[in-house]
Amino acid sequence: MISLTHFMVVSAVLFCIGLYMIVSKHNAIQILIGIELMLNAAILNLVAFGKYDRSSNGGQMFVLFAIVLAAATTAVALAIILNVYRRYKTIDPGTIDNLKD
Amino acid sequence: MTLVQVLFYLMSFIALGSALFVAATKNLVRSIFMFFITLFALAGLYVLVLADFVAITQVVIYVGGILVLILFAFMLSGKETLNIIAEQRKPFISLSKVPAILLACLFLIVLINVIFKADVDHLGWIKNSIALKNGIAPDAAMTENIGINLMTRYLLPFEAISILLIVALVGAAHLSRKESGA
User: Fold this and answer.
1) ipTM greater than 0.85, yes or no?
2) N or C: which end of chain A has fewer CB within 10 A?
3) 0.95 exceeded by pTM
4) How far apart are CA B130 and CA A62, in angstroms?
């Protein structure tokens, strides 16, 4: 079988790609994709450890909760992005620097 | 090399390669569609750790829900501004990307170091679980167990997450409606 270390290394690389996207991108949607990549890295770790818990399924259960949380986050974030686009006509987070009045 | 190992390396290669492409490409549409492939490869990895229900959930919710939402947001925010953003940064590897790359690489080194120092394959509870045969067997059907656990041991988090989900969805609908009064 594949050892846990393999999965953790894969998820570490995924996490760093997500981190790079969040720091470097100039587009709110791509930053959101970076956040999803980091969430998926965390989910991969949870699932890999959950393999050793058959009776109570801790890992897989919290993965399900994390996926639901990710869906809720995305819905709210996209609503905010649409509002920002309507007001500023751009979704580059670096140029949005006004508060409401 | 057993078949499982071959599949593991194949899946992780696809996942990491497409994630790198998502991070590197300038074209937003291409990066969204490559993100599809990343998510599918990750679902394959979940199957390899014997979490088939989670893999199906990943495909249904992420690919069916979140990505469609992202595509909608992309289509509703006009295409011209996105193109302008893409045009401005034509020179490949611009200098502004260097700090981000540096940060990601250094963080990766730290993470890999921690993983190898922690020696996760020989943790106490994992050895215990192998000794007690509490690991998931490759031929076990876990979906039934997940359902039972969801209704007994994890009932409180389940209810909390359902309330949070409805609050978030109502909030999202409220945020994205046409502004009339406020």
Assistant:
1) yes
2) C
3) no
4) 21
